[in-house]
Design a protein that fits this description.
The two termini are 28 Å apart. Strand 7, helix 12 and strand 8 form a beta-alpha-beta unit. The protein is 54% helix and 13% strand. Strands 3-4-2-5-1-6-7-8 form an eight-stranded mixed β-sheet, with helices on both faces. It has 14 helices and eight strands. The chain has 351 residues and is of the alpha/beta class.
Amino acid sequence: MSGELTVVVGAGGVGKTTLAAALALGSAREGLRTLVMTFDPSLRLKDALGVGDAARDDPVPVVAGLDAALLDARRTFDRLVRAYAPDSMAARRILANRFYQDMAGHLAGILEYMAMERLFEMRASRRYDRIILDTPPTRQALDFLQAPQRMMDLVDSKAIRFALDPWWDDPGHGSLPLRIAGRTALGLSDRIVGRRFLLDVVEFIRAFAPLFEGFRSRAREVGELLRAPETRFLLVTGPGSERVPDAMFFLRRLEEAGHHLGPILVNPVTPDPGPGAGEGVVLLRHLADRDRRGLALLQRLFPGERRILPVALEPSPPADLPSLERLYGKLAENRAFLPQCGIFGAYGKGS
């Protein structure tokens, strides 16, 4: 695989998608082939960059040097089955399985697994110098970061080995414990979900077995990629002091997992409105004071360890390419800070 990776993480409502889009646009303007991807189920990137549903299947061009891609878990899963099944008959067997049809795109954790696979797919294509990843809010982003290990654990699990046991082919063979366990499982399934459901699950796992090693291998590579020194995590947080505990929680989890952290972007920070006594000015002054206290708290908690970049509140939220370019221009004014983000090519290296 090739290409540098920047992962934008943080709580909901702090502007991750907008900042990821602005930074990706800037990266492309500096001559790097850039892909910005979102795994955020709300798909706000679609509106910010003006891309349609076609981006769910393949990356679509936004401007010269910049593509955007959205995640559709079901389509990604179907594509994986067709690509990695031993033959077309095996692919049809999986795709026609009732458990697969109910599970793909709906079961908890599938979005995170497919996000992992989508990232692998884009990196392996060698089409991009840089990939900028916009993640869902904190908790779901953590699920994504843990997905590679969970996939490897799943493939090695007792449940998978149980479903692959020859007992299912010939009830007259197999060990007594397996027969007892099988009868117990069938009896329990009759009472709870129905025997047909359990047999569909077993049939799915057995049809899917030839793909397990590929899933394990790709999960290992994505796990190594996310912890690679050249992969940078940018944490976006809100300016208020109430946001600080969430930011600290995320930072601690990332560090414990061995990820490499870049600066903290605090967004949006209300500027001081200056003198005046109107209602609007009073409100802005209150927000500016609140944000100043939150910034001061962050700087006390991380003295000298990590750069903290305040991103000033825009008069109107960036919602199109010109406004995203203006946002990038303001970020790029901080020449001493931006190279630490690991997302700037010629500009960052030359500054």
